[in-house]
Structure formats: C-alpha cells, structure tokens
Amino acid sequence: MQFYSLNQQSPKVSFKEAVIRGIAPDKGLYFPETISPLSKEFFQHIENHTNEEIAFEMIRQFVGNEIPEPDLKAIIEDTLCFDFPLVELEDNVFSLELFHGPTMAFKDVGGRFMARCLSYFNKKQTNEVTVLVATSGDTGGAVASGFLGVKGVNVVILYPSGKVSEVQEKQLTTLGQNIIALEVDGTFDDCQAMVKRAFLDTEITDEMQLTSANSINVARWLPQMFYFAFAYKQLKDRSKKLTFSTPSGNFGNICAGVMAQQLGLPVSHFIASTNANKVVPNYMESGKYEPLKSVATISNAMDVGDPSNFIRIRKIFKDNFKLIKKNISSFSYSDYQTRIAMQDVFKASGYIMDPHGAVGYLGLKQYLQDQNKTQGIFLETAHPVKFLDVVEPVIQKSIAFPSQIEEIMDRKKVATSISSYENLKSFLLN
Ligand SMILES: *Cc1c(COP(=O)(O)O)cnc(C)c1O
Question: In what order do the strands lie in the sheet with 13-14?
Fold first, then answer.
C-alpha cells in the first residue's frame, strides 16, 4: 500500500516511510492510495471475532507487507490490552468508554500502536529517533506512556506551563527513562510553533532523525477505526440504523470512524460535536472552510481552530459538500450547556461524563430528536478524573482516583523549563 500527500507535490511513500516522516515534505497529510471494503459477512458476524482479529482485518491493507503478519498481530495484541465497554444510558443512547487504557483517554490506542510500529521499523537501524511533540494535555500522556521503554526512540514533550490539569502534568513528567518533559513558559500555540520550527531547522535535522506523533501520523490515526467496530460488535440489536457522535478537536477520531464506514461498517450517519471552536459546524452551514483562532473551553482537548484532519474527511467524500452533509452533521455547544448535560445525566442515572464526552452526548441527543428507529453511540473520550476541577463542582461529589492515576500522583515531577526556541534548540543539540 502506498500513501500520497494530499498536497500532491511530494512522492508517494510506503506505510513505513509515512510513519517515520509523519507529514510529507510538501506539508501535506498522507492518505492511502486505495481503500478496499471488507466482506459483508465480516461485519454481519462480527461477534465471532476477537477485538484483535477485528483490528487486524481493518488495518492490514494499510500496513501491507511492511510488517509481516505475525509481527503485526503481536503489535495489535500489545496495543489492545484493555476494554472498550459500551454502556447503555437511555433508550437508544450508548456511551462507548474509551478511557480504560493506561492514561485514561482514547489516544492510548493510537499512541501505543504508533510507538510499536516505529520501534519495529527502527529495530535494524543503529541511530535513534526522536519523537518531538507538543501537547495541550492528553496527547503527551498517551505518547509518553506508549513509548516508555521503547528501544531506539527518545520522546521530547513540550507542554504549556500551568495550562494542563494536575493529572495530565503528572502523566507527562513522572515517567523518566526515555521520556523528557519540557515545561514551556507560554501557551499550547507557542509549543506547537516551536515544534514546527524545529522540524524545519536543518541544524537540528542534520544531527537527529525527528518525527511527530500527533494524529496527522497515519499510525496514530488509522487504529482509531477499531473503536467503531468494537462498539458495533457489542450492540444487542444490530438491525436498527446506527449513528456515532464524536467529540471533535483535530477531527482525527471522527475521520477514522468515516474510514471504518468506508471499510463497510454499517453506520448511517456521523455527528461531529464540538465546543465553542466551531469551524466545522460553520462549514456545514456555509460550505466555506474558514479557520479561526482557538478559544479556551472546559473541554480543552478540543480547543482547535483549524482541525488538521478535516481535509482527510473532505478527501474521502471527494470534496462533495452534499455528500459530506448527507453523512455528517456538526453541532457546537457552550461550556454552560456542557455542564448542564453533565449534571442532568448524573442526576438521572448516576453516570459521570467528562466534559468531552458530554459534548458528544449533546450532539447525539440533538440529532436523535428528528430520527426514529435509530440508535446512537457517543464516544466517551476521557475518564472524568482527568478533569476533576471541572467535573466535581458540577456533580457536587468527589471522584475516586482509579489505580492507574493514584499510582502517579505521589511521584515526583521532573521537567526542564524553557522559554524560547533557542532553549529548545540547545537542549536538543546537547
Ligand atoms: C484529543 C481528544 C479529543 C479530540 O479528538 P480529535 O481526534 O482531535 O478530534 C476529544 N476528547 C479528548 C479527551 C481528547 O483527548
């Protein structure tokens, strides 16, 4: 399988090269040359397959022969070492809990899969790879945990000082080994700008092999297809129409859902639920895509003003506005509405949603209002404990730390403070 750049100016590459490069030299996102649907029987009898088998069938065409079957199977098995439960909250309303992995957010699957692929490709090489990543919170933790102890790979994470939650900071700064945290005196946008500059700085790239680890990387993006199939497998009644609501920021997750649909997963509609950052809801109304400056919200992992992966969705639907509208709705919600939803659901059923999942819930409810014989699943993308300062005052109850988190809260933070690009550069070069 070959991948081409959506900017069309760079040569096609293999899966391996797409993973190592992250982004094409012309700054385009990599996209698979072909997408071949799986057999109807596969999805009809999905309950006969283990999660590992489902994942293998869905991803093998994209990996091609770059990783031999037994090795790919081992990577998948190692990636999927936790559960993805589907919880029924109301009639036809389900929560797909994607927070049972090591860092308790859905990015664990992509982070772990990518780390293992990179480590596989790097086995025969003698020089090390440095993963350089900026995070607003969850990406850094998932990447750190996914790459911890992986030979031949060093991870350098930039995070904005004082702007990630306490749990998130502990996840970034307490692991040690090959994981290095840089605490940046600035915003997430500053971190992102420094990382981008480093990728273009030949004094750095002549010295070391740099790669990125956000959802533009195909090895982080594609494994997210699995969740949608795992959810489908758990439905008791698969004869009803099915819709998914995905709380969206950079639009990698929902784009992976659309890829699963292209493979034949019977999904009738997707809902891209956003917070106040509403570039895509605006696009759905006007047909014009206009990036905005991001605004801060309580669902901060979705504070994105120019979602990178939306271009892949447009590609899949041949940039046909009508076709996009037929398959995707998009709604935006305020922090106030999000808090009310968290409160209402907690009062009605005792179920605690995190602010991101709550945005997904709101979108699903809005869409289902005008549908009959349709069931819907919203993606619960993070454990509420990751956003304690928001969740506890809303539900007026304290939440217990799960064991994964409790363990790290007592560990000592280790981070190097930096305040400029020059600091980053000298750090990398020494
Ligand atoms: C990253 C993240 C999102 C947004 O996912 P995208 O793929 O960027 O759209 C939603 N919720 C949580 C908790 C996240 O960490």
Answer: 13-14, 2-5, 30-32
Whole-number Å distance between alpha carbons of 129 and 404: 28
Q: What are phi and psi of 159, to 5 degrees?
A: -135, 150
381 C-alpha vs ligand 1 centroid, how far in Å? 7
**Residue 272 phi, psi (nearest 5):** -95, 105
Q: How far is the CA of 183 from the centre of ligand 1 (A)?
A: 22
Distance of alpha carbon 277 from alpha carbon 293, whole angstroms:
8
- Counting ligand 1 atoms within 8 A of each CB, the residue from 95, 98, 99, 106 with the most, and so the one to mutate, is 106
pLDDT of residue 81: 93
The catalytic position among 12, 16, 107, 347 is 107
Atom in ligand 1 nearest the alpha carbon of residue 138: 15
Q: What stretches in the chain show pLDDT beneath 50? A: none
In a domain, 148, yes or no: no
- Residue with token string 């036809």: 92
Spatial separation of the C-alpha atoms in residues 298 and 409, rounded to whole Å: 22
The first and second tokens of residue 132, run together, are 């350089």
- What is the SS3 assignment for 379? strand
- Residues composing the chain: 430
pLDDT in tens, 260-282: 999 999 999 999 999 999 999 99
How many domains are there within the chain? 1
Catalytic (active site) residue 315: no
Look over the chain and give the mean of its residue pLDDT values, rounded to a whole number: 94
- Mutate which of 168, 253, 254, 306 for ligand 1? The one with the most ligand atoms within 8 Å of its CB, which is 253
Token pair for 427: 């750090």
Q: Which residues, in sequence order, are CB contacts of 266 under 8 Å at separation 6+?
A: 43, 232, 238, 242
What integer pLDDT is reported at residue 211 of this predicted model?
87
Q: Which two tokens mark 332?
A: 């935006």
Domain span including residue 378: 77-105+220-400
Which whole-number Å values give the CA distances from 353 to 252, 253, 335, in the listed order? 21, 18, 14
E-strand stretches of 203-320: 209-211, 241-247, 269-274
Residue 31 in any domain: the answer is no
- What's the CATH number where 326 sits? 3.40.50.1100
